[in-house]
Amino acid sequence: MKAKAKKVVKAICFCLVVVLMVNFLTDLFKPKFLENRWKFTKTINSFYDLDEDSIEVALLGTSQMAASMDPLQLYEEQGISSFNLGIMSQPIQATYFWLREVVKSQDLKLAVVEVKAMARKGLKEDVKARRSFDYMKDNLNKLQYAKEYHNSLEDESKFGLKKKLLPFYWDYLFPLDVYHSRWSSLEYDDYDFLFGDNNRTNTRGFATLTTEFQNNKNYDEKKDEKGKYDGLVIKTDEVEDVHESIAEYDITFIEYAKEQGIPLLFIKTPDVTWNEKQHNYIKMLAEKYDIEFIDFNLKEMHEEIGFDLLTDEADTIHTNISGAQKITKYVGDYISANYDVTDYRESDSDVKEVIESELDDYHDTMRNANLSFEYDFYEYAELLDNEDYDILVVAGSNTIDLENMSDEQKDVFLKLGVKKDAFKETEDGVNVAVANINGEIESKADKQDEERTKSSYIGGSFRDGTDYAITAADKCCAVRINNNKQVLINEGALNVIVYDNKLHEIADTAYIYNSDVWLMIDRKEL
Length: 526
Fold this sequence. Notes:
The structure is a single chain. By secondary structure, the protein is α/β, with parallel strands linked by helices. Helices cover 40% and strands 16% of the residues. It folds into three domains: 1-30; 33-368, SGNH hydrolase (Rossmann fold, 3-Layer(aba) Sandwich); 386-522, no CATH class. Strands 8-7-6-13-14-15 form a six-stranded antiparallel sheet. A five-stranded parallel sheet has the order 2-1-3-4-5, with helices on both faces. Strands 9-10-11-12 form a four-stranded antiparallel sheet, with no helix packed on it. Helix 4 crosses helix 16 and helix 5 (92-105) packs parallel to helix 12 (244-259). It starts with a helix and ends with a strand.
């Protein structure tokens, strides 16, 4: 009997080890969805950190919700406790199952829904839809989500959906089968997310976008001149032909919210691709189920909140931090006036204490966002003067016109640590590399040789211990952080990389060059 018991124990231990290994590898290989401006995995992790019954308002939808509604602005202006669960490419099925997930731990007084996903003519591909799925906690709700979305794609495949886009149900339950091939492309973020502490959001899910639509490749000057970006004027009664599966889930979502006693507020954030028929479809749904609907695409709404699509929109479908501030202000005031929500600023509660403990990091994050949103050279230079910032500067010898800067402009860079030799006219150019760490400066301005083979290197650590490496060469500059993460730079300009020691992240990467008129600041589009 003892021998048999030992065998059973060994078998159980072996199975446990296998399960733990599979779970670990799954977590390691899963994409972290931390790319560039979207931090959805951090958002989901932070949601699960929330105390029970600590938010009254859930902000749900796609990345358009993530970019448009700032929960901590809602708190500071109206005292509302909320969380933004907007996730890129989220289908309405995911919105439904995320509402079910929220209801498990939160006693909601309102769900604000960005309605883009409710008015689509087609389904999202599995590879996009599972951004909303992979980091949901393993439970029955997640299994039901997998089953429902798999079935909707299976139905769609009968009508022409490419077979390679149709996932196996198994792939939802055991994503290691999907992601195991990532072993050869794992990056620093994959390990840091698991073993470090850089896996939570400072903004309760709000995405800080800092580009402007007027600089976007999809901006059309002729459309602008014709007033196409001034907002919609509804001139038709036609209704969008929404995909059957989506239309069914629109109703399922609405009826579930009503069963739970959760009021809904529909909003549509500014979106160049939104049209009159989609507006009419959502309006029809809202009227049928007695739901308030605010469409910020209407010309009258643009005028009411002072929304300028050219400067308040980041791209064709997302607001930037300027536009989000206007949307959040309007929606926050509307919620306070029309729904029974608590002003936690006036309370003596754990909710207030927790939110206010988050404000310092939030303000620092917004400070960095505003730095990335600044395009005036002298204003930018003033913002760089911050005790939390360390600064790197790099330019290859092929960078032109540095010598043509004004003395005032050169003085800004001299204060950052750039040597005077960088601005001297030479036949083969100058490699520029600077590390300004808390005022301690290491700087190089090395003349390029005739063969253009010379490179200049500076390496070291920021004040928080994070490693950096700068290489300046002809048409080949590079900046690496933590010996792995390469920073986006422009190899034909003077690059400024700003590192925030408090938040342990790059606050901004900008490149600066001489135009025919003035010094320009730009950034590589993320």
